[in-house]
């Protein structure tokens, strides 16, 4: 009881002396934290933050159980953690400094319009157009890589591509991936009922269980499905086979009906179900 009373006397009495500048300082710190979280959410630092959270939970358990050796190793490693984070997140830190010099800084800190896409709200027509385009490209053995976005942000990969912003049609997809055209190299990102970006570069999967005969296009499709909740449709340039990568799993040699079924499985999926899987994925990767 005496410790509680001492805590109250030391800290709670200070609340009475909060002035206008203290309130301004609290607001500024809150905005800084909010902007930092929004920025991290749109980069690969979000995945890193989840890993740090797991480590912190482990260290709390180690502290409770008095695992002195583990705590000593953690304290020693922490001395180099800051330098390691700077090296790993160098592209993100540079992007953050660039944004500080932009004129629309206030608008990015306090967004007046929601930048959140219509999550999963793509129509039956969009499904039919994607399937039709993939079937045509399969017959002509035209390679294609189509990423259908869901909840997770793809801003990190959109920055590597070219903005398109066109309604999804089979003709548009075929024209984009036609050989020797300016936009055929890389991936297309579909958000809702629109093709938003083309020629995007995706992370390659390092899954050793993937077949050795798979090329860069398939490994990129699996790679983006491992780090986001998007579904990727791949058309092979070598044999014309249609494949789908989702949650790190690759389904190969699909028919038009099977491709349509795959796309419908994520169409208009309830947001609460997605959110549940997303929180669940914080601690283990569902395959």
From TrEMBL:
It is an enzyme of class 2 (transferase). It comes from the Bacteria. The chain crosses the membrane at residues 17-38, 45-64. It catalyses: 2 ATP = 3',3'-c-di-AMP + 2 diphosphate. The keyword Signal does not apply. One of its GO terms (biological process) is cAMP biosynthetic process. Keywords: ATP-binding, Cell membrane, Membrane, Nucleotide-binding, Nucleotidyltransferase, Transferase, Transmembrane, Transmembrane helix. Catalyzes the condensation of 2 ATP molecules into cyclic di-AMP (c-di-AMP), a second messenger used to regulate differing processes in different bacteria. Probably a homodimer. This is Diadenylate cyclase. It comes from Gallintestinimicrobium propionicum.
């Amino acid at each position: 009881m005496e410790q509680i009373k001492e805590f109250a006397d030391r800290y709670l009495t200070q609340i009475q002396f909060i002035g206008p500048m203290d309130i301004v300082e609290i607001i500024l710190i809150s905005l800084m934290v909010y902007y930092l979280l929004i920025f991290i959410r749109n980069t690969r630092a979000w995945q890193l933050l989840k890993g740090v959270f797991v480590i912190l939970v482990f260290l709390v358990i180690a502290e409770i159980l008095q695992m002195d050796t583990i705590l000593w190793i953690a304290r020693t490693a922490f001395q180099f953690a800051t330098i390691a984070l700077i090296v790993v997140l160098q592209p993100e830190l540079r992007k953050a400094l660039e944004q500080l010099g932009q004129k629309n800084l206030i608008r990015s800190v306090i967004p007046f319009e929601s930048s959140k896409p219509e999550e999963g709200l793509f129509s039956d027509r969009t499904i039919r157009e994607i399937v039709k385009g993939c079937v045509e490209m399969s017959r002509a053995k035209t390679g294609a890589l189509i990423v259908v976005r869901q909840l997770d942000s793809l801003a990190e990969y959109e920055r590597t591509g070219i903005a398109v912003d066109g309604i999804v049609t089979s003709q548009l997809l075929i024209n984009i991936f036609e050989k020797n055209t300016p936009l055929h190299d890389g991936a297309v990102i579909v958000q809702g009922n629109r093709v938003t970006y083309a020629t995007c570069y995706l992370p390659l999967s390092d899954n050793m269980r993937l077949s050795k005969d798979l090329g860069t296009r398939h490994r990129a499709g699996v790679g983006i499905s491992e780090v986001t909740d998007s579904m990727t449709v791949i058309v092979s340039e070598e044999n014309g086979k249609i494949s789908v990568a989702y949650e790190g799993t690759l389904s190969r040699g699909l028919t038009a009906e099977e491709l349509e079924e795959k796309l419908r499985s994520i169409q208009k999926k309830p947001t609460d179900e997605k959110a549940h899987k997303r929180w669940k994925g914080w601690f283990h990767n569902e395959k």
